[in-house]
């Protein structure tokens, strides 16, 4: 018999949506939540976004720029499964955050705009999914508009993203001529009826393309074209292979229109059936199986000041094994301390709620005052750390410039706390009092300046500084490290976690330093340890 943990883990489906901005991620999310019964009305996701703006003023910036800086977790039940959808921030500048969310999911859903095809950000996100062979399903959106020829589009996905496509649904027409989709595995035809298609019950479904009524609905010519196209597809494309999908080698493809809620339920039905439940996870010592009794998990995201009334932070922990129950204690591996997980949050789509219990695949939010960092592992006492949650070397650097010198303490605190969220990194050079901020995108400096003022009452600006790139320093030999430290002190700094970092004024300088210190490792990412 399966244990409680094993059966709960088996029904979890934890995933994220990856897409280029404007492909329809938010709209699709909304429709998925509708099917989960999590929200009553279309428009609620945007409504919730607006409500959250009210709770934290800095998000006014997010609104101004039309970007989504925060991500969240939505949980809903569907067909006997529990679906966890981890939202990824939409703006390109926030890539790092997105990368880390993708370490916390078991699969991904890729949304492609039928008119635009494979776009630049989708390519990048796909590269990240590749690192862990994350299984991916594809939804080709906006079929109610004219777009690329579906066969050519699949070719594009295959050649640009280097993944086999297995169409599961196939469109009948497009744009003004969109009539429906054929389900290639069941043979069923689902008609497109704008304003309906809300659920299966509202839709017209024929058992096959041979149903005589279909011809009456779409016309003889279109039916003939469809038959021809289906033959072509059968000959030219791949059929669904569950193992290839799970290995990340093949993506099942669906066509539809998110805004019209068309084709979405077919996708969701297939998703909950075939998408993987939580998989084993690598740690520093061993593989952790989800069905193990004891709780383990790792933190993939920190969000500061979610609620201005409580100046605390929420650490988002992905559960990898065992069962979480409200009020339990867990072992915080990095500090070696037990932490009481009181008031942990779960993320039912209706609202954040106090968690009663949670299982592998679920995410809980842990309130803390800065003791918990991205990449931290929790267990019930075992000394293990989950691996693979990267911290990327920033590519842009600025020195913080304070307008009121009396606010130095607040500035330091603000920079350190905001850097815990992971979008920026904070460095203190060994030999100066400078406060250096590193980021992967320019926009992040604006966000930090705005939040420093809004949340910490500090008026600070950022000025250019002569740093081109950063590398984390590793060296097993204490003597070599000490020598290196002395010789290069002018270029060394400590990051927020106290790790040694080399801040290079140029690539050439970095290269020379590396050549001169062959026994020292220069790392472009820091694995959270
Ligand atoms: P995101 O940036 O990926 O989250 O995209 P959104 O969900 O905000 O959608 C971007 C725009 O495309 C919005 O104006 C949507 O209303 C629109 N949109 C989304 N799905 C469809 C669709 O199926 N058909 C059409 N015509 N527009 C859509």
Automatic annotation (TrEMBL):
Top-level taxonomic group: Bacteria
GO terms under biological process: regulation of translational termination
InterPro entries documented for this protein: EF-G-like_DII, EFG_III/V, G_TR_CS, P-loop_NTPase, PrfC, RF3_C, RF3_dom_3_sf, RF3_GTP-bd
Transmembrane helix is among the record's keywords: no
Listed Gene3D superfamilies: P-loop containing nucleotide triphosphate hydrolases, Peptide chain release factor 3, domain III
Annotated positions binding GTP: 19-26, 87-91, 141-144
Domain Tr-type G stretches: 10-279
Subcellular location: Cytoplasm
Pfam families in the cross-refs: EF-G_D2, GTP_EFTU, RF3_C
Cellular-component GO terms for this entry: cytosol
MF-aspect GO terms: GTP binding; GTPase activity; guanosine tetraphosphate binding; translation release factor activity, codon nonspecific; translation release factor activity, codon specific
Keywords: Cytoplasm, GTP-binding, Nucleotide-binding, Protein biosynthesis
Keyword Protein biosynthesis: yes
Family: Belongs to the TRAFAC class translation factor GTPase superfamily. Classic translation factor GTPase family. PrfC subfamily.
PANTHER family listed in its UniProt record: PEPTIDE CHAIN RELEASE FACTOR RF3
Function per UniProt: Increases the formation of ribosomal termination complexes and stimulates activities of RF-1 and RF-2. It binds guanine nucleotides and has strong preference for UGA stop codons. It may interact directly with the ribosome. The stimulation of RF-1 and RF-2 is significantly reduced by GTP and GDP, but not by GMP.
Designated name of the protein: Peptide chain release factor 3
